[in-house]
Amino acid sequence: MIDIEGLATGPDATILTIAAQSFDPFGKGYYDRCYYARISLESQENRTIEEGTIQWWSTQKEAQKEAFCEEGRVDLNIALD
Fold first, then answer.
1. Are 13 and 19 a contacting pair, CB within 8 Å?
2. For the chain, what is the radius of gyration of the CA atoms?
3. Each residue's pLDDT tens digit, 39-78
4. Distance CA 71, CA 51 (A)
5. Nearest partner of 3 among 32, 33, 27, 34, judged by Cα
6. pTM (2 decimals)?
7. Among the listed residues 54, 44, 51, 57, the one whose alpha carbon sits nearest the alpha carbon of residue 12
């Protein structure tokens, strides 16, 4: 399962975080393999930021702490590798 948090809703959205969790939906559930990366905004200069999505994030107080944390951000290309 993959979850991407971003600053727009289209395929060219600026990405805040990428998370992945391996699992077996027909077996014992989750495996102990996961991935999480905070993506640097500077590595995504040509990607989209939508005002409506920024407004939505302003209503998500708990999620903001993690999604907008600056610590440990990596370039998008590194995260995708």
1. no
2. 14
3. 999 999 999 999 999 999 999 988 888 889 999 999 999 9
4. 24
5. 34
6. 0.86
7. 44
